[in-house]
Amino acid sequence: MAKITLSKLRHSYLPNPAGPADYALKEIDLDWSDGGAYALLGPSGCGKSTLLNIISGLLTPSEGQILFDDKDVTGLPPDQRNIAQVFQFPVIYDTMSVFDNLAFPLRNRGVPETTVKARVSDIAEMLEVTDMLGTRAAGLSPDNKQKISMGRGLVRDDVNVVMFDEPLTVIDPHLKWKLRSKLKELHQKVRATMIYVTHDQTEALTFADQVVVMQDGEIVQIGTPVDLFARPAHTFVGHFIGSPGMNVLPAELRDGGAYLAGQHVPLEGAVTGQGQLTQIGIRPEFVRIGNTGLQATVRKVSDVGRHSVVEAMIGDTSVKAVTEDPPPAQGAAIHLQFQQDQTRLYRDGWLATEAAG
Question: What percent of the chain lies above the pLDDT cut of 90?
Fold first, then answer.
């Protein structure tokens, strides 16, 4: 296990990048502590896989350094970094038994057979596959194949980091929750440094202690799942995380206050920073339907089971509210109340209000 440091990391797939737009990864500075559970979260094309390949040694960065426990490994090939990887599609040997699949990484390194048996037994018990050890891997279900692939990554006790690249993509939806829970449980038991790459917010937020959110080759926020939901540092984070995502609404600043469609909106605190584009951000969970507040008209109501999502129009602007009360009818005239301590201003996408209190 190792502390991982990324220092001034940049990467371009072009031989002579002329500017920021030519870089798949813009400058990245990041520290991951030894033994932590981390997630790289973002949409396709944001740079997650590029960053993962740089850490693993499959790709050499255009600029910057990768350090494991303060040792520069930027120039080292993958086999000298002691990294285990689990990919989208299970990497196992179908002709081998489950036991031999789990034992392979250890036997390949000359580990004594008594140690191999003990380690495989421990991992098999954690994965709940002990009764499958004698089974030929070709006959396993996709979720059990991915379990074995995870086990191959965890069976060694000398790895610096275990990296998971979209490991649940091909797993049936009803089995994903079970495997996510199992992976979290495994981390708590083995305490290896783990990095989980995904575009799925549920996977990232349920697995990781710290989530790194990426957009267009940049890190826009690092925080706990609670941090990312409660106080998005960027409108992208607010929109990307949450279902539905944060309302991002056009705002006009005048007379020291923020206005939406000509109506005053009290903010959580004083406005800070500089920027051209000003927007109000508030999560639908903190928008209430009441007798006073911003005048709006109901456009659509979606029943999602335990609550309803009401989409209303304030002028030409759509605002979503989550309510557990009986929702108003489509076309109804209503008032929306924004919870002030959750109502923030963003300048050019970045948070620009002081925290309430």
Answer: 63
